[in-house]
Amino acid sequence: MSIAHPTSPGPSVVVGCTGIVAEGVKRAFGDVRAVDGVTFSAPSGAVTALIGPNGSGKTTLLLVLAGLLRPDAGTARVGGFDIVTENLAARASVGWMPDSFGTWDALTCREILLTFASAYGLSPEAGRRRAASLFEQLHLTEFAERPARVLSRGQKQRLGLARALVHDPCVLLLDEPASGLDPRSRIELRDLLRDLAQEGKTVLVSSHVLSELEEVYDHAVFLSKGRTVEATAVDARTAERGWRLDALDPVALRTFLANAGIPWARSSGGEVIVQLAGTDSAMQLVRAAVAAGVALHTIAPVAGRLEEAYLALDEERK
Ligand SMILES: Nc1ncnc2c1ncn2[C@@H]1O[C@H](COP(=O)(O)OP(=O)(O)OP(=O)(O)O)[C@@H](O)[C@H]1O
After folding, report:
1. Residue 237 CB: number of other CB atoms within 10 A?
2. How far is the CA of 193 from the CAs of 90, 129, 268, 295, in angstroms?
3. CA of 156 relative to ligand 1 center, distance in Å
4. Nearest protein CA to atom 3 of ligand 1, as residue
5. Are both 154 and 174 inside the same structural domain?
6. Could you tell me the residue range of the domain that residue 253 belongs to?
7. pLDDT tens digits, the chain, 318 residues: what are they?
8. In total, how many domains does the chain have?
9. Which residues make Cβ contacts (< 8 Å) with residue 122, sequence separation at least 6?
10. Which residues line ligand 1 (CB under 6 A)?
11. 0.95 surpassed by complex ipTM
């Protein structure tokens, strides 16, 4: 089951890339049912977030979709190809970025990319051009001739992303791609994912750091204990949640809240947190504060929408 981002522009029109469709996919390791009945689709031209707690089966599912792990049951089509019966074609249409990218440490970054380009059937000239453009795009040009072993974790992540993109695949499967990246690289990654979706690619990206995905996702798929689970779309107008408030005069704000009988708590950042029943209540509070002469300059929900949907998952409460 999936929820759509409220500001999602909707998938672009895409020719030739049909996204991901998985039905009843299962995969066990001995007694451990890592993926235990996953059904979802991820359209092309969009970023789909794959969300779930540790051990919920995200990596196993991505490995199955990448054609690297055979499912015990169920079917999945990736880029239009069945991952079991058309495994090679499915794998050729996928760019896979694992959560930690094992490199051949003695090879230079350029040698690594050219090796993958060649394995995917690019001519030497096309491989060189593609590698140069990816190094430029992912700020790795200065490392191109250095052995992979000298790269930092974040630089290795970027090389892993370059490797996933080297054959210009129509489906991208990215497992925790932001881990190890510095703040600027994270922002650039978000922009890159949006650009790739805009080009018509299918982007499926896993993370349990929901703030990473909040600004980039179009759809979200929730996994719990190996299964896709229903996420309740939270009605922002009425759902009770924490709101962060701050005013030019914090003492005046707290006095106003006390007089209005609104309980508050102090956040770690020093602002005031109140529980409000949705945006309607928030607007009422702003009006009342202004009428009372309180110069309120901040009022914002504490959690993002993905976080709310995640916390509202029935499965997670058990
Ligand atoms: N090769 C394996 N052999 C045995 N058990 C495995 C194997 N791979 C995964 N598992 C188990 O399958 C379950 C799902 O693991 P998986 O790595 O897919 O979860 P995840 O959602 O990616 O977790 P995380 O967020 O911590 O990366 C876990 O209980 C894990 O211990």
Report:
1. 12
2. 21, 21, 32, 39
3. 22
4. 29
5. yes
6. 241-316
7. 445 554 444 444 444 678 999 999 999 999 999 999 999 999 999 999 999 888 999 999 999 999 999 999 999 999 999 999 999 999 999 999 998 777 788 899 999 999 999 999 999 999 999 999 999 989 899 999 999 999 888 888 899 999 999 999 999 999 999 887 888 888 888 888 998 999 999 999 998 778 778 878 888 898 989 998 876 555 555 667 788 899 999 999 999 999 999 999 887 777 888 988 877 888 899 999 999 999 999 888 777 777 777 776 655 544
8. 2
9. 130, 166, 167
10. 29, 32, 34, 52, 54-60, 208
11. yes
